[in-house]
Specification:
This protein has 430 residues and is of the alpha+beta class. It contains 11 helices and 17 strands. It has 2 domains: 93 residues, Glutamine synthetase, N-terminal domain (Ubiquitin-like (UB roll)), CATH 3.10.20; 322 residues, 2-Layer Sandwich (Creatine Kinase, Chain A, domain 2). Strands 8, 9, 10, 11, 12, 13, 14, 15, 16 and 17 form a 10-stranded mixed sheet that branches. Strands 2-1-6-5 form a 4-stranded mixed sheet. A 3-stranded antiparallel sheet has the order 3-4-7, with no helix packed on it.
Length: 430
């Protein structure tokens, strides 16, 4: 096969879009796409009035631009991959570009002399097709939590993902089975926010494509199987200061009773904007089946120490490994938008010196101090987002306006779907 470049971006629906291009494009370059891609829904419906898309202004181009030194080895034969930023015809950044939103969030923190570092934990369920073509859970009856080997993965698709990730330099830290079979966890080595999120979206696409080669549909949907645990996209956050030190660290251990002003501000921002954060980081009709009390999912507006039943978790590790974990997001959200939202909400709390509510003392199963959680549905969560002017402006009003419009349409499109039908409406994309 002739060498080629696969240039991609992750869009408003968290779908990877792109083109195969000749090797001559392996330098600082660009390729053009129709801007109304941001009007297209999962069912291929073109929503002409979607904000910022210019559907009614001639369906103009937008440009995907990349740097030659960001091109990396891909997982397909003779194929390299690159991610880029989106621009309008007048040369200005496309307001809806999720990667651009993340870069703005990083720049806002850098003005304080702090560089965000991020580590993402991805969870996913595996499915196959039965003899009638129906999508069914992957058959691994011997799968157990923290399971590895043949009983957990009879087709060994996880081995293929592991081998390819390390062959092409994607920093995959672990693969293991989760509590509910056939659910798996994939964790990638933390790093600078934009670099890490590039790795996350490429890994997610690679994993889905390799799994499909093995006859497995790997889905990052938040709750694809009723009665089983949900799948999250947990965001682990730290900051490096001008001297290269972890700015969250206050000793060798993560002590929730002795937080720095930085940590307190971040958590306070997450608490103040809890409901609106859900509208951007849990933006799926299945998200609110996952976001429930006593589900380890980030439902409650609360924080604590080494407690998986709170939304904002202070790691027990300190020193270089000190970090905060936000447990609400799921991978149905665009990962760039998710981390941009988490960073901007944290910054609002830090810059605004928000008061931090007391830490959670309940166990999360039999009782909580928290008085409210997320909305009960996507429709309500989008209303919560629309009502939070501060967070919307921080993330980017153009992106948020488009998101709200598309998600309200999604509420209508999925209103009559339930069970397998709702899952299958999304599963080939997420």
């Amino acid at each position: 096969m002739t060498e080629r470049l696969r240039a991609m971006f992750c869009d408003h629906l968290s779908i990877m879009r792109g083109k195969y291009l000749p090797a001559s494009k392996m330098k600082d370059d660009e390729s053009r796409f129709a801007q109304p891609n941001f009007s297209v829904h999962y069912d291929k419906d073109l929503l002409l009035e979607a904000p910022g898309t210019k559907c009614l202004e001639g369906i103009p181009d937008m440009a995907l631009r990349w740097k030659g030194d960001e091109i990396r080895q891909g997982w397909e034969p003779a194929t390299r991959v690159v991610l880029g930023d989106l621009y309008q015809n007048d040369g200005s950044p496309l307001p809806m570009c999720p990667r651009g939103a993340l870069k703005r969030a990083v720049a806002a923190w850098e003005r304080h002399g702090l560089t965000p570092k991020v580590g993402i934990e991805l969870e996913a369920y595996a499915f196959t097709r039965d003899t009638d073509g129906r999508i069914v859970p992957y058959d691994n009856p011997g799968g157990v939590v923290y399971g590895t080997g043949n009983f957990t993965d009879p087709r060994r698709f996880c081995d293929a993902i592991w081998n390819k990730a390390h062959e092409i330099g994607l920093p995959l830290d672990l693969i293991t089975a989760e509590y509910d079979a056939p659910q798996f966890e994939f964790t990638l080595t933390f790093g600078p926010a934009v670099e890490h999120l590039d790795t996350v979206v490429l890994f997610r696409q690679m994993a889905r494509e390799i799994a499909l080669d093995h006859g497995v549909i790997l889905s990052f949907l938040p709750k694809p199987i009723p009665g089983k645990g949900g799948s999250g996209l947990h965001v682990n956050l730290s900051f490096t200061d001008a001297d290269g030190r972890n700015a969250l660290a206050k000793g060798d251990w993560g002590n929730p009773d002795d937080l720095s002003d930085l940590a307190r501000g971040c958590i306070a921002g997450w608490m103040r904007h809890h409901k609106a954060i859900a509208g951007l980081t849990a933006p799926n009709a299945l998200s609110y089946a996952r976001l429930q009390p006593a589900s380890l999912s980030g439902y409650w507006c609360n924080w604590g120490g080494d407690n998986r039943n709170v939304t904002a978790r202070v790691s027990a590790e300190g020193g270089k490994k000190a970090r905060l974990e936000h447990r609400m997001p799921d991978a149905a959200a665009n990962p760039y938008t998710t981390v941009a939202t988490i960073l901007q909400a944290a910054l609002l709390g830090y810059e605004g010196s928000y008061d931090l509510q007391p830490r959670e003392t309940g166990d999360g199963f039999t009782g909580n101090d928290a008085e409210h959680g997320t909305a009960a549905s996507l429709a309500e969560a989008i209303d919560d987002l629309a009502a939070d002017a501060a967070l919307s402006a921080a993330v980017g009003q153009g992106l948020v306006d488009n998101h709200i419009f598309m998600k309200r349409a999604e509420v209508e499109k999925t209103a009559g779907l339930e069970g397998d039908a709702l899952r299958d409406w999304y599963i080939w994309y997420l």
